[in-house]
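Sample pair:
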Amino acid sequence: MVFAFGFVLFALGITLSIALHECGHMWAAQATGMKVRRYFIGFGPKIFSFRRGETEYGVKALPLGGFCDIAGMTALDELDPKDLDRAMYRQATWKRLLVMSGGIAMNFLLGFFLIVVVAVGWGLPRLADPPAKIGAVQCVSDHNPDRSYQACTGQGPAQRGGLRPGDVVTAVNGVGVSTWFEFTAQTQKQTGVIRYTVERDGQSLQVSVQPQQVVRYTDSGEQLEISAVGVTLDVPESPQYDVFTAIPASAQFTADLSVRTVHSLLQLPAKVTALWDAVTGGERDPETPLSVLGASRIGGETAERGLWQSFILVLASLNFFLAVFNLLPLLPLDGGHIAVVLYEKIRNTIRGWKGLAPGAPVNYLKLLPATYAFVVIGGAYMLLTLAADIVNPIRLL
């Protein structure tokens, strides 16, 4: 029941993020004197609408986004003659840029607000991969088929071998490790005695541990046998903030998360193979992108376990992704329209230096082939991601 509530709540959060993105465009257009003819959430058949002033507001049947119809976005738009002077393509460059970047700015602001909520409510987590610092030593056990752990008692291999809480592992059998994930990956693939190099109380020590072979199940149900030693990660407590100290800390966190978002976006083309492997029965790479379904599923899982900090952080990350993705200079994205506006400005400036009149607005018909290609490729990518989230979903917990 809680999972379903979290799933629906996260989906509503995505819908609200998209709605506010379109509000960013609409409010900027209205503030600069342009005419907003329609503002709708969703696509397809209209469910309901109402008119307030010169704008029709409404909801459509397919919750796959939204749109804000501004009169004269391009010179190809049909316009009432009385609206010609308010046409967007005839406005000053700064006004057009303000309108086209309004949605992007709204997603950044919403993401920042959510980060502030996390900072005040729970503290901000570390974005960098955690170091290989031992938090606790314990017994080890096999997985059940549902990926829960079987009961166990007594000492585990790490405790018998001499690993202690607070030890920082720097090498596994001579292979250097700097993060917890490198440490666990190296440990799991060993077959004999493992020689750990650890930092303890300012000294470098060698600790030998005989691992225990345990059964683990993957997301796809595959049974594996790996080595385990029975240690947990030492998770430092997140610093707490009040409303005032949360602002600068959240600004820095937002900047760091935005950089990571850009890096993830650049990796999207390389993830096609990993997504295809996930669809065809391979292991799902947790670094592959998510569809709305997959993100909502994670929202449901975090809500089910009461991890509302993670719930809000995932929603904030989604807003940063929407903002950065829309900056791409490709039509029909906001970044594509921004690129057209900047091109016209630069072209007309150069023409002015030569004593020539401004050129005609960019002919969007000439850009349609590239636009269609992006829509087709992007749509196929979205369908592949959706398929992966259906047959082989990412499970964070």
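The longest strand covers residues 36-52.
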